[in-house]
Amino acid sequence: MVVKVYGPLCASTKRVLLVLIEKGIEFETVNVDVSKGEHRQPEFLKLQPFGVVPVIQDGDYTLYESRAIMRYYAEKYNSQGVDLLGKTIEERGMVEQWLEVEAQNFHSHAYNLAIHILFAPIFGITPDPKVIEESEAKLDRVLTIYEERLSQSKYLAGDFFSLADMSHIPFIDYIVNNTGKKHLINKRKHVSGWWDDISNRASWKKVLELYRAPI
Amino acid sequence: MVVKVYGPLCASTKRVLLVLIEKGIEFETVNVDVSKGEHRQPEFLKLQPFGVVPVIQDGDYTLYESRAIMRYYAEKYNSQGVDLLGKTIEERGMVEQWLEVEAQNFHSHAYNLAIHILFAPIFGITPDPKVIEESEAKLDRVLTIYEERLSQSKYLAGDFFSLADMSHIPFIDYIVNNTGKKHLINKRKHVSGWWDDISNRASWKKVLELYRAPI
């Protein structure tokens, strides 16, 4: 059964694509043009009532929320492809901790920078310089903690690549390559080394090759 | 080894306490007075560099982020006490989906209501009527989707109680009992039935008996 992935051009969906590629799971994609509001159409809301991508359909199983889908495939295909959850319950705990840090401490600031610098024209939003300034300052503080963490271990959850690292890739890519804020990464020795490592994975190169957003 | 839980009076920590009690895991608590800024003191930042509760220490294993700790204990003691993750990988996927919905769609609005209505005086914040109005409107829309979901299944992830339901309890308790917004729950047949069910669990009664916040 080929997994159907909705909204491949969106950053959050790219988290899911990374897992599918790392695990060698066959998939096909269905475009959802959020600039045209297709994520708010009745047909899409039947799949995802909150009106956001991604959603996957795998036979008659439908699942949404990018980090939930990542966990689902990492667990379902635990012994296939790259291990993304750690080998012990304690390692999995650290993966979960840093996945939550990404979701709770990193994401909203990175998202604000992407929306207000990069996507404002596309979505007809007026960029707010105060939001940009505050988000950059908050992200800077978060990345100071990442620098300390990554001076102790090669990856966020320990000395193994995991969902926790992977979950950061799509939005750090915007920060480094599309928002003029790459100094946030580059000025930090361990964070920039980590970014060089994870952004050079074949899976991310394939995602960009196939599903680069039209920006 | 007795689990040490930091910050038991805070709502997010109560997610962790619920799991420990449901699983019958022995624990002790360490107060962290956030109204006095104890979560920003160097000693605490060594445990949790982002300066938020909860944190647990379990022997020499330290873990933070409430939903990560919930998953860790639910998995580690999978066959002890109440099953909180579902019985299959597909059920676990639905638990993860609704845990993410709680974190991404529900929490920030419920948190804003609690902060601006309930905790503003304690933390010296000026309540913002616009934030309160917008948060209530957004929460109302989210709960409309919950009502639809709970008309199809007894609990969020399916016909079984799970971490996804549990994760909502501390903040819905504020909404119903401390913010004057209980109509958001009570006007909905299935959401209010669900709330009656999950808030009457012995675990939640014990949490309130032992660690009710001084508000």
UniProtKB/TrEMBL annotation, chains A, B:
One GO BP annotation of this record: toxin catabolic process
Tell me which UniProt keywords the record has, alphabetically: Cytoplasm, Detoxification, Transferase
GO cellular component terms, A-Z: cytosol
**Cellular localisation:** Cytoplasm, Cytosol
Tell whether Hydrolase is among the UniProt keywords: no
Write out the coiled-coil annotation as residue ranges. Answer: none
Q: According to its UniProt record, which reaction does this protein catalyse?
A: RX + glutathione = an S-substituted glutathione + a halide anion + H(+)
Q: According to its UniProt record, which protein family does this protein belong to?
A: Belongs to the GST superfamily. Phi family.
Name of this chain's protein: glutathione transferase
> Which species does the entry assign this protein to?
Acacia crassicarpa (northern wattle)
Record lineage: Eukaryota, Viridiplantae, Streptophyta, Embryophyta, Tracheophyta
